[in-house]
């Protein structure tokens, strides 16, 4: 059977140390449940002594999240270990992760201790942690800049004291993959009791080598990797979970190790963490970036359509990504265009494709990338112009500080002119309510966004909406110098698209 690499996720602890990434308890709990679905082996839920909120978060996660081991971080100080022990107590399987720095600069300048005293403190903390749980991890902070002989001394002592996992962090992201791999080999070959513990690594990304260093360590004997979703973490971040896991999976021929990760949950987890922390994922980020599976060059698109593996080493679906895989642009050919429309659910005649393709090429001259939304607009415009169900004929709104916002509208449906008025929380809400009544459609407004297309007080406002009804979703756009009018246009546009979809039975993907 293939050996398994343990995935220790520290998004909620080291990841949360990213500037601006702090999460409240409810958000941490959401992420923890998703990490459990993802299949991580260990969740480091926080640093209980650091704040009452962190203590509560670790305790709540320990109480409610099932599956992974729940770990808390503690310095080697007795009060840290005790607080951590309390926090992880409700977990079915809890771990205390205690650490102290071992590099000369940290020992001399930060801790102001002797090397002997550091070992004593580490041993005492591990022994104390053992009174709370049998699962104790010890980390040599800044091991990447620590003499290997001293690392071995510390590691031997903490294993003797009961540590079941020994972690070798490259805390400042200083190591090279060759050097770091050798360090792990040295520990594996020179620590006499190493068979009693799992070797773990924890790499930071200051020189962009966190993933490479972690993989080099696995090759030389590490069996646990510490990592975070989207590579979040202190400064330049930690090794990214998704990159490590997909390296092991895609290049199983080379590494020959498995993980417990359900890779179909990767994309969802990445999105959730990004949404909650408000830290966007860079578009060209491996595995989870918006462009990770996007093919723009015509030659690539053509190759992909003939045989996917020409330009793809893994499928977007294997990481749970279901969005568009081709960014259409001026390099895209008719073949790719037709295929994308089919994927979006349009079954068009050759003549219709030709007309739409002509419009697409015109758009490409004005716009570098053409996304699915643009394609919907082209097809809807080209093929369904004049087939809209509802057309706006009249709009009047009133609002202000001492009046109830009101909207009166007339919309045309074929030969029929419908008219209604409504009040609402504002003029836009009032207008949407009146439209709902006239169309008799029970539409759910899922997204509403407004932006100024041009500058100045007379700027054109562009409104984008996304609506849903009975399992179908549609987007709509509207532009005007009057933002209420732009909103009404966008809303009607989305409703018309929804009705067109119903008529031609399109299945829009990725909405
Ligand atoms: O980077 C580091 O050394 C750490 C330790 C606490 C494991 O985060
Ligand atoms: Zn760290």
List keywords for this structure.
single chain, 511 residues, binds zinc ion, binds 3-methyl-2-oxobutanoic acid, 8-stranded parallel beta barrel, 3 domains, disordered C terminus, alpha/beta, 3-stranded antiparallel β-sheet, TIM Barrel, Double Stranded RNA Binding Domain
Describe the structure.
The chain has 511 residues and is an alpha/beta fold. It has three domains: 3-277, Alpha-Beta Barrel (TIM Barrel), CATH 3.20.20; 298-384, no CATH class; 391-510, Alpha-isopropylmalate synthase LeuA, regulatory domain (Double Stranded RNA Binding Domain, 2-Layer Sandwich). 41% of the residues lie in helices and 21% in strands. A hairpin with a 2-residue loop joins strand 17 (461-469) and strand 18 (472-480). Helix 1 runs parallel beside helix 2 and helix 16 (427-439) runs parallel beside helix 17 (483-504). It is elongated, with a radius of gyration of 29 Å. The chain starts with a strand and ends in a 7-residue tail after the last helix. The structure holds 3-methyl-2-oxobutanoic acid and zinc ion. Residues 14, 99, 139, 141, 167, 169, 171, 202, 204 line the site of 3-methyl-2-oxobutanoic acid (KIV).
């Amino acid at each position: 059977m293939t050996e398994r690499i343990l995935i220790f996720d520290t998004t909620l602890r080291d990841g949360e140390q990213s500037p601006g990434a702090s999460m409240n308890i409810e958000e941490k709990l959401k992420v923890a449940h998703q990490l459990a679905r993802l299949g991580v082996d260990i969740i480091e839920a926080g640093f209980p002594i650091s704040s009452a909120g962190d203590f509560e978060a670790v305790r709540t996660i320990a109480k409610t999240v099932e599956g992974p081991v729940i770990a808390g971080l503690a310095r080697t100080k007795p009060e840290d270990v005790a607080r951590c022990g309390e926090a992880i107590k409700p977990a079915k399987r809890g771990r205390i992760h205690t650490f102290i720095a071992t590099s000369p600069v940290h020992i001399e300048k930060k801790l102001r201790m002797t090397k002997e005293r550091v070992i004593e403190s580490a041993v005492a903390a591990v022994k104390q942690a053992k009174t709370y749980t049998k699962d104790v991890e010890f980390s040599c902070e800044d091991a990447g800049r620590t003499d290997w002989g001293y690392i071995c001394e510390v590691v031997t002592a903490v294993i003797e004291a009961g540590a079941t996992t020994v972690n070798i962090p490259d805390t400042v992201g200083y190591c090279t993959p060759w050097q770091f791999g050798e360090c792990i080999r040295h520990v594996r070959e020179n620590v006499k009791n190493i068979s009693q513990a799992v070797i773990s690594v924890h790499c930071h990304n200051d020189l962009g080598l966190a993933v490479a260093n972690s993989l080099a360590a696995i090759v030389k004997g590490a069996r646990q990797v510490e990592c975070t979703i989207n590579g979040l973490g202190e400064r330049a971040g930690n090794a990214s979970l998704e990159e490590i896991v997909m390296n092991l999976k895609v290049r199983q021929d080379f590494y020959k190790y498995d993980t417990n990760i359900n890779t179909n949950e990767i994309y969802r987890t990445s999105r959730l963490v990004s949404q909650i922390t408000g830290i966007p994922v860079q578009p060209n980020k491996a595995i989870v970036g918006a462009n990770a599976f996007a093919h723009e060059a015509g030659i690539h698109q053509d190759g992909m359509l003939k045989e996917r593996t020409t330009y793809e080493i893994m499928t977007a679906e294997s990481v749970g990504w279901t969005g568009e895989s081709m960014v259409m642009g001026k390099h895209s050919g008719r073949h790719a265009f037709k295929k994308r429309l089919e994927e979006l659910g349009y079954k068009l005649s050759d003549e219709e494709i030709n007309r739409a393709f002509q419009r697409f090429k015109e758009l490409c001259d004005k716009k570098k990338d053409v996304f699915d939304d643009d394609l919907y607009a082209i097809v809807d415009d080209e093929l369904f112009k004049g087939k809209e169900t509802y057309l706006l004929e009249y709009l009047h709104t009133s609002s202000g500080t001492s009046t109830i916002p009101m909207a009166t509208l007339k919309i045309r449906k074929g030969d029929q002119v419908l008219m209604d008025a409504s009040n609402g929380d504002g003029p836009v809400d009032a207008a949407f309510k009146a439209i709902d009544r006239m169309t008799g459609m029970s539409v759910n407004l899922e997204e509403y966004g407004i932006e100024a297309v041009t500058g100045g007080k007379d700027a054109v406002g562009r409104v984008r909406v996304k609506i849903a009804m009975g399992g179908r979703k549609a987007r709509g756009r509207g532009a005007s110098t009057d933002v209420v009018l732009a909103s009404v246009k966008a809303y009607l546009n989305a409703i018309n698209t929804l009705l067109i979809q119903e008529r031609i039975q399109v299945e829009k993907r990725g909405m």
